[in-house]
Amino acid sequence: MPNLGPTELIIIGLILVLLFGAKKLPEAARGLGRSLRIFKSETAKLRDDDEADGTTTTVVQAQAQAQPAAPVPQPIPAATSTPASALSVEEQARQLEEQAARLRAQSGAPKTQ
To answer: How many H-runs (helices) and E-runs (strands) does the chain carry?
Structure first.
Protein backbone atom coordinates (compact mmCIF):
# COMPACT_ATOMS: atom_id res chain seq x y z
CA MET A 1 0.00 0.00 0.00
CA PRO A 2 1.54 3.30 -0.99
CA ASN A 3 2.11 6.10 1.50
CA LEU A 4 -0.75 8.53 1.99
CA GLY A 5 0.20 12.07 1.12
CA PRO A 6 -1.57 15.29 2.04
CA THR A 7 -3.75 15.27 -1.09
CA GLU A 8 -5.00 11.74 -0.39
CA LEU A 9 -5.79 12.65 3.21
CA ILE A 10 -7.75 15.73 2.07
CA ILE A 11 -9.74 13.60 -0.38
CA ILE A 12 -10.51 11.06 2.35
CA GLY A 13 -11.59 13.90 4.68
CA LEU A 14 -13.90 15.35 2.02
CA ILE A 15 -15.47 11.94 1.43
CA LEU A 16 -16.09 11.56 5.16
CA VAL A 17 -17.70 15.00 5.33
CA LEU A 18 -19.94 14.15 2.37
CA LEU A 19 -20.92 10.76 3.80
CA PHE A 20 -21.57 11.73 7.41
CA GLY A 21 -22.13 15.46 7.27
CA ALA A 22 -20.15 18.17 9.00
CA LYS A 23 -22.40 18.13 12.08
CA LYS A 24 -22.01 14.42 12.83
CA LEU A 25 -18.21 14.21 12.60
CA PRO A 26 -17.40 16.14 15.82
CA GLU A 27 -20.01 14.12 17.72
CA ALA A 28 -18.52 10.89 16.39
CA ALA A 29 -15.01 12.01 17.34
CA ARG A 30 -16.20 12.91 20.87
CA GLY A 31 -17.88 9.53 21.24
CA LEU A 32 -14.76 7.76 20.02
CA GLY A 33 -12.62 9.73 22.47
CA ARG A 34 -14.91 8.83 25.38
CA SER A 35 -14.85 5.18 24.38
CA LEU A 36 -11.05 5.15 24.25
CA ARG A 37 -10.83 6.84 27.66
CA ILE A 38 -13.18 4.27 29.19
CA PHE A 39 -11.25 1.44 27.55
CA LYS A 40 -7.91 2.74 28.86
CA SER A 41 -9.25 3.16 32.41
CA GLU A 42 -10.73 -0.35 32.42
CA THR A 43 -7.50 -1.94 31.17
CA ALA A 44 -5.57 0.00 33.83
CA LYS A 45 -7.97 -1.29 36.50
CA LEU A 46 -7.49 -4.85 35.24
CA ARG A 47 -3.71 -4.44 35.41
CA ASP A 48 -3.98 -3.06 38.95
CA ASP A 49 -6.26 -5.93 39.98
CA ASP A 50 -3.81 -8.48 38.54
CA GLU A 51 -0.92 -6.86 40.40
CA ALA A 52 -2.94 -6.75 43.62
CA ASP A 53 -3.93 -10.41 43.23
CA GLY A 54 -0.27 -11.35 42.81
CA THR A 55 0.75 -9.63 46.05
CA THR A 56 -2.14 -11.06 48.09
CA THR A 57 -1.35 -14.55 46.86
CA THR A 58 2.18 -14.35 48.23
CA VAL A 59 0.92 -12.93 51.54
CA VAL A 60 -1.64 -15.73 51.87
CA GLN A 61 1.01 -18.33 51.05
CA ALA A 62 3.33 -16.85 53.68
CA GLN A 63 0.55 -16.93 56.28
CA ALA A 64 -0.31 -20.51 55.36
CA GLN A 65 3.31 -21.54 55.89
CA ALA A 66 3.39 -19.78 59.27
CA GLN A 67 0.41 -21.79 60.57
CA PRO A 68 1.61 -25.36 61.18
CA ALA A 69 -1.73 -27.13 61.70
CA ALA A 70 -5.20 -26.57 60.31
CA PRO A 71 -8.04 -26.14 62.82
CA VAL A 72 -10.09 -29.23 63.52
CA PRO A 73 -13.55 -28.95 61.92
CA GLN A 74 -16.40 -28.96 64.39
CA PRO A 75 -19.53 -31.01 63.76
CA ILE A 76 -22.60 -29.21 62.52
CA PRO A 77 -25.29 -28.82 65.20
CA ALA A 78 -28.36 -31.03 64.93
CA ALA A 79 -30.60 -28.02 64.21
CA THR A 80 -29.01 -27.51 60.81
CA SER A 81 -28.84 -31.18 59.88
CA THR A 82 -32.51 -31.39 58.84
CA PRO A 83 -33.09 -32.49 55.28
CA ALA A 84 -32.82 -29.68 52.75
CA SER A 85 -36.10 -30.63 51.09
CA ALA A 86 -38.01 -29.98 54.34
CA LEU A 87 -36.68 -26.39 54.62
CA SER A 88 -37.72 -23.38 52.62
CA VAL A 89 -35.18 -21.53 50.50
CA GLU A 90 -35.03 -18.68 53.01
CA GLU A 91 -34.33 -21.06 55.89
CA GLN A 92 -31.61 -22.80 53.88
CA ALA A 93 -30.01 -19.44 53.07
CA ARG A 94 -30.16 -18.36 56.72
CA GLN A 95 -28.55 -21.62 57.84
CA LEU A 96 -25.80 -21.30 55.25
CA GLU A 97 -25.11 -17.72 56.36
CA GLU A 98 -24.91 -18.84 60.00
CA GLN A 99 -22.58 -21.67 59.06
CA ALA A 100 -20.36 -19.30 57.07
CA ALA A 101 -20.25 -16.88 60.02
CA ARG A 102 -19.17 -19.69 62.35
CA LEU A 103 -16.46 -20.79 59.93
CA ARG A 104 -15.26 -17.19 59.54
CA ALA A 105 -15.13 -16.80 63.31
CA GLN A 106 -13.10 -20.01 63.62
CA SER A 107 -10.60 -18.94 60.98
CA GLY A 108 -10.47 -15.31 62.09
CA ALA A 109 -11.08 -14.07 58.53
CA PRO A 110 -12.96 -10.80 57.91
CA LYS A 111 -16.41 -10.88 56.32
CA THR A 112 -16.37 -10.17 52.56
CA GLN A 113 -19.26 -9.37 50.24
So the answer is: 3, 0
Residues 29 and 13: beta-carbon distance below 8 Å:
no
**In sequence order, which residues have a C-beta less than 8 Å from that of residue 87 and are 6 or more positions away?**
95
**pLDDT tens per residue across span 34-88:** 999 999 999 999 998 888 876 655 555 555 555 555 555 565 555 545 555 567 8
Distance CA 105, CA 100 (A): 9
- What distance in Å separates the CA atoms of residue 22 and residue 27, rounded to the nearest whole number? 10
The structure's pTM equals: 0.34
Start-to-end CA distance of the chain, whole Å, equals: 55
21 torsion bin: left (phi>0), alpha (psi -120 to 50), beta (else):
left
